[in-house]
Amino acid sequence: MLRKFYLGTLLHVGLGLTFLLLFCEYLVYYVVLTQCEWPTLDPRKEDPALRGEATDRPVRAMFIADTHLLGSREGHWFDKLRREWQMYRAFQTMMTLQQPDVVFVLGDVFDEGKWCGSAEFEYYTKRFHSLFHVPKDTRLYVVAGNHDMGFHYAITPYRNQRFINGMKSPNVRRLSLRDNHFVLINSMALEGDGCFLCRPTEIAVNKIASKLSPLILACQDFFVIDYSLNRLYVYRIAEDLKCARKIGNDCRNASTISRYSRPILLQHYPMYRESDEICNELDQAPNELKAIKFRERWECLSKEASEQLLDILNPRLIVAGHTHHGCRRIHRDDVLEFTIPSFSWRNKNNPSLLMGTFTPSNYSVSKCYMPVESTVIAIYSCSLLCILIYLIIKLRPRRHAYSRVKMP
After folding, report:
1. Strand, helix or coil at 176?
2. What is the pLDDT of residue 201?
3. What average pLDDT does this structure show over 66-82?
4. Are strands 264-266 and 317-320 parallel, antiparallel or unpaired?
5. Contact 182, 101 (CB under 8 A)
6. What share of the chain is helix, strand, coil (3-state, %, to 5)?
7. Closest Cα partner for 285 from 295, 272, 275?
8. Confidence band of 222 (pLDDT split at 50, 70, 90)
9. CA separation (Å) from 122 to 43, 80, 129, 160, 313?
10. Which candidate in 74, 172, 342, 363 could, as Cys together with 324 as Cys, close a disulfide (CB 3.0–4.6 Å)?
11. Contact 388, 6 (CB under 8 A)
12. What is the pTM of this model?
């Protein structure tokens, strides 16, 4: 009888622990993320100049940033296992529940991409595609971050090209989905500081309006060519968009854009701002960090680069990462910018991602919040305490009764 009692008690405890683990490591993601919905379009916010067909099918896009997959230098094995499991479960749950058309990862994919060797980088890319696997009907695009190849001063042609090849992520890309134009830019290629990378680019862009071949023949350094291509391609994208509006100056060689819409600018660095004091989001920076001044080209783009992007591209929405905290601001009255926090629970207690619904003439975005780590820990702590109390209550009386029988 006593043995059956102990076995029954241990079975109950085992079932309780199993359910606790199942809930906190699997079911909690469904409980939380089923509350997220795709934002609906408000007809009152539609751009009348770009109004299209009533049958326009919206593009549903999901944005995450700063996954910071840990490397061999600074990543403890348990921390690495824990964080990657959390990101994997949250991301795959979103794929199952929400089924986006496209997913954008806005830089700092890797934590040690700027240090690791070629073998580890190859392992990095395999892990990334395993963790962030998307269904065949969903596209995934990546933007480079400073942890992927280094800050501007530390980038080498090898690191730059390695990331481009490994992640299929050119430094500048225009992506058109159902006449919604997404422009993806490597933030580290926007320094404009007169260095050996930037100054030749500025000269080349001023000399060459639309023809690229003289630059390729004249330059010997691969990275200068690559960087110049980036800057020139930004102008080419802007010209293509103008041509779609029938206002471009040279549209003979413009790529085909069947219908104009203001682009969505995606990059790693946020646009220039003095600090996070202007931010007022649930996932904003802690109060002790909000007043710290941003350094241009480190925590944000330079003011000059920000103004140029706004002038050249005239985006309707800007989405960025880098700071690990959420922020929202308005540029020039109608250009909304979102800074989305790190998707890794290592960097943020309450990560979130951005969900957007886009048509050429309208868009709507909303935050989707992940499970809060402190809440999950509290569930673990309270549940384990309850299980311990249960064990004490169930086992203590029986031990005393057994002792009284054995005393004579």
Report:
1. strand
2. 34
3. 90
4. parallel
5. no
6. 45, 15, 40
7. 275
8. very low
9. 46, 17, 11, 14, 34
10. 342
11. no
12. 0.85
Backbone angles phi, psi at 180, to 5 degrees: -100, 125
What's the pLDDT tens digit per position in 240-256? 666 666 666 666 655 55
Give the CA count within 13 Å in the CB-facing half-sphere of 289. Answer: 10
Nearest to 9 by CA among 403, 393, 401: 393
Q: 262: which 2 tokens?
A: 């203001």
Amino acid type, 369: Y
Question: Is 259's pLDDT higher than 60?
Answer: yes
Q: Return the SS3 of 99.
A: coil
Give 354's strand partners: 63, 367
* Per-residue pLDDT band at 189 (split at 50, 70, 90): confident
Q: How many residues does the chain have?
A: 408
Give DSSP secondary structure letters for 107-130.
Answer: S--BSSTTT--HHHHHHHHHHHHH
Q: What is the DSSP string of 300-366?
A: B--HHHHHHHHHHH--SEEEE-SSSS-EEEEETTTEEEEEPPPSSTTT-SS-EEEEEEEETTEEEEE
What are the tokens at 178?
A: 């159902």
69 DSSP 8-state letter: B
Query: Could you tell me which residues come within 8 angstroms of residue 387 by beta carbon, excluding any fewer than 6 positions away?
Result: 13, 16, 17, 20
Residue 184 has what pLDDT?
A: 87
Dist CA 248 CA 246 (whole Å): 6
Eight-state DSSP code of residue 210: S
- DSSP-based three-state secondary structure for 297: coil
> Are 63 and 340 contacting, i.e. CB atoms less than 8 angstroms apart?
yes
Q: Which value, to the nearest 10 degrees, does the dihedral of the CA atoms of residues 124, 347, 106, 130 take? A: 30
Half-sphere exposure of 85 (CA within 13 A, CB side): 9
Q: Token pair for residue 307? A: 């103004």
CB proximity list for 94: less than 8 A, separation 6 or greater = 33, 36, 62, 100, 353, 368
- Give the pLDDT band (50/70/90) at residue 314: confident
Average pLDDT of every residue of the chain = 83
- Angle in degrees, 0-180, between the axes of helices 198-207 and 222-244, rounded to the nearest 10: 40
Residue 371's alpha-carbon distances to 18, 89, 268, in angstroms, are 20, 11, 24
Instruction: Tell me the C-alpha distance between 201 and 221, whole Å.
Output: 12
